[in-house]
Amino acid sequence: MVISGFPALKASLQSAPPKTAVVAAAHDEHTLQAVFAAQRDGLIRPLLVGHQEEILSIARRLGEKLASGQVVDAADDIHCAARSVDLIRAGHGSMLIKGMLPTGTLLKAVVNRESGIRTGSVMSHVAILDVPSYHKLLYITDGGMVVAPDLEQKRHILQNAINFCRFLGYDCPKAAALCAVETVNPSMPETIDAAALKEAGGQGDFGPCIVEGPISLDLATDREAAQVKRYHSPVAGDADILLAPSISAGNLLGKSLYGLAGGEMAGVVLGASVPITVNSRGATAEEKYWSILICAAMN
Asked: Which of 69, 105, 154, 222 is deepest in the core (most CB within 10 A)?
């Protein structure tokens, strides 16, 4: 299965039952617009944590009626994060949606050794891009969590992304370990890592998938460029996953495809007991909706 874009992914979920979702710091209009839209579309059943009176006021303004017990009052950002994570631990949610609080505050509660919900050895971020010039969704990792991953961390980041694609229905995801060049160069350590990841993929370490690297961005996404350079690989021009060599590269790539290239973007943090949306507090309601859609597809 290959997903061409967000509308195609949404269509594939029409028969799935709604998932329970905890919304941390839900006192934000864009967040609630996205949450209520997802609820109307049958994607989620939300539990709203935050400033109760503000949440109720926004809901009234949006013409939404809230059920009894649907709002959990929380005084500040730290309380919102902790209460939301507690609800997940207690089994009241199968996804965690970030509202009007800093990402760092929410993730601090998530990774707390005593009360958090971290399960994986490495938590990583995947940006999902629907870019007009590309024939299917792109999954870029990691542009938001691990600053300068070593080879072992890259293995976990790649495994997270591959597992993520399998949750969405991909049988054999195609992953490109991005570098500036296509050959191993000792002066460019990321090329050595990329070659090692390709070898691990070929040995079946990541399960059913194809891993290519080192490979440049143009070869991973442009068949004609690969033909001109005589670069032969099933991944060339048809990559699903773009593994960035650093957080800076992943962040810049995601934002350039989202902004300059006119793409639509969703995002999810993996490695906790449930998927977590971490859109910017300034993100549009539509962007937050797509992230909720992705998390709903994973459960």
From this structure: 154
The domain covering 124-264 belongs, at the CATH homologous superfamily level, to Isopropylmalate Dehydrogenase (3.40.718.10)
HSE-up of residue 117 (Cα within 13 Å, Cβ side): 27
Q: The whole model's pTM is what?
A: 0.92
**Among candidate residues 6, 38, 12, 40, the one with its CA nearest the CA of residue 23:** 38
Task: Count Cβ atoms within 10 A of the Cβ of residue 52 and give its class: 0-12 exposed, 13-18 middle, 19 or more buried.
Answer: middle
Domains of the chain, by residue range, sit at 13-119+272-298, 124-264
Burial class of residue 203 in the structure, from the number of CB atoms within 10 Å of its CB (0-12 exposed, 13-18 middle, 19+ buried)? exposed
Are the C-beta atoms of 281 and 270 separated by less than 8 Å? no
Q: Which pLDDT band holds residue 299 (cuts at 50, 70, 90)?
A: low
Strand partners, 118: 272
On the question of a cis peptide bond just before residue 150, with omega within 30 degrees of 0, the verdict is no
Residue 15 pLDDT exceeds 80: no
Question: Rounded to the nearest 10 degrees, how much is the dihedral formed by the CA atoms of 57, 18, 161, 138?
Answer: -80
3-state class (DSSP) for residue 95? coil
Residue position matching structure tokens 């793409």: 263
Question: Percent of the chain, pLDDT > 90?
Answer: 83
